[in-house]
Amino acid sequence: xxxxxxxxxxxxxxxxxxxxxPLRDKMATAFYTGQCLTDIELLNAYRFTWLGRKxxxxxxxxxxxxxxxxxxxxxxxxxxxxxxxxxxxWQKLYEVQVKARLWGGAALYIGTGxxxxxxPLDVERIKKGGIKYLxxxxxxxxTAGELDQNVTSExxxxxxxxxxxxxxTFLRIHPSRFAIFIGAAHPDPILGGASNGWTGWGxxxxxxxxxxxxxADATAANIASLVFEANVDVFKTPDFxxxxxxxxxxxxxxRRFQLAATMKGINRALVMDASEEYERKTISFxxxxxxxxxxxxxxxxxxxxxxxxxxxxxxxxxxxxxESDMKNYHDRVSSxxxxxxxxxxxxxxxxxxxxxxxxRPEKIFYSWSPLEQMSEKELAEIGKLNAETAKTLVDAGLFxxxxxxxxxxxxxxxxxxxPGLDQVVAETGEDFDPxxxxxxxxxxxxxxxxxxxx
Length: 454
Hints:
Elements: H1 2-17, H2 39-48, H3 50-64, E1 68-71, H4 74-87, H5 89-103, E2 105-111, E3 133-138, E4 142-144, E5 162-165, E6 170-173, E7 178-182, H6 189-196, H7 210-227, E8 231-236, H8 240-243, H9 247-267, E9 277-282, H10 288-303, H11 307-311, H12 323-344, H13 346-357, E10 365-368, H14 376-395, H15 401-414, H16 421-427, H17 446-453
Antiparallel strand pairs: 1-10, 2-3, 2-7, 4-5, 5-6, 8-9
Helix pairs in contact: 2-3, 3-5, 4-13, 7-10, 14-15
């Protein structure tokens, strides 16, 4: 009776107290631990699993596939783009990102022909054609040196030099001569580098995704194995187990079921003894697609890539467009471009402009081309709204037609509504009537007009 009273008065308290008891609470013994993948495991995950390859390649491809929009004269833009093609800029920018995401880090070496590579790269000294080549080096090709612990240094918390070892050469290079890319950056470079033995670099992006990948692959493999057991034939034979002791009976029963399977496959008929029973066990797959989709969504969330982009499929569900998911993803890609890639290639861009033009005009800059592509209808609607806005401003007398002409022309060209319009406007500028739509005819009084006619 005393135990019952104690349970009634102290049951909830005991339950709460036991939540952190290692002997009763299973979660009390759960904790996070690091399990770094080896280089061979990373390589196999990328080479032999489609999820691993997509997780590495898709963001790297999306950051570079639309390029950049340079703001400069047409001749200057042409020279810069020509220099990018000569150096293989976009292909190597994609390659260095793939290696950085896979291995945890990679570098793009800016080859200028200098001999003293431990001296910082002087961007101002780059002349036309000053960049000789660009070389992609992965984490194992470049050994990071000691971390700079001087808080007043530009390179604080980063390697103060890098070592590149070849078959016959050993070079120590200043970090300003590299465009460094990190896969998954460590919040603390010292602790993070000690955990995987690669000080100065980050983790592979597959490290945080590999568990979700394994679960999805294992689920797919189990579902595939169930397909072979979707239909199982069950025969019930009298005295089956007791008769198996006879080798002759065993041979006859095997021959009997082989003949039954052959007849069933050819004639769609099954001949049985009157004392035998036959039934078919069927496995239902009705819920398996939802199970598989759930595991793929977990991979999508871990990789921060929408399912529609990761799997290349249309959005599922009524009225589903996937527009919101793709917009969020495009915002993430834009953040990668502005917060990761652009700072990494800042010196390279400064060298690229000088190598293409021989100088560095102050007004030259660029912006990343948007990934969203408007339809022809949307583009036409925007062009119509822009034209109506310009006409309203002129009719209100806030601006003249000549003042808005250059602005509207640039707007139409940058939106790809009328490519090449700026060149046509430049050629026909002298013949342009600044009054949009022409002036209204001067109104005359009817009596005055009658008097003039008399």
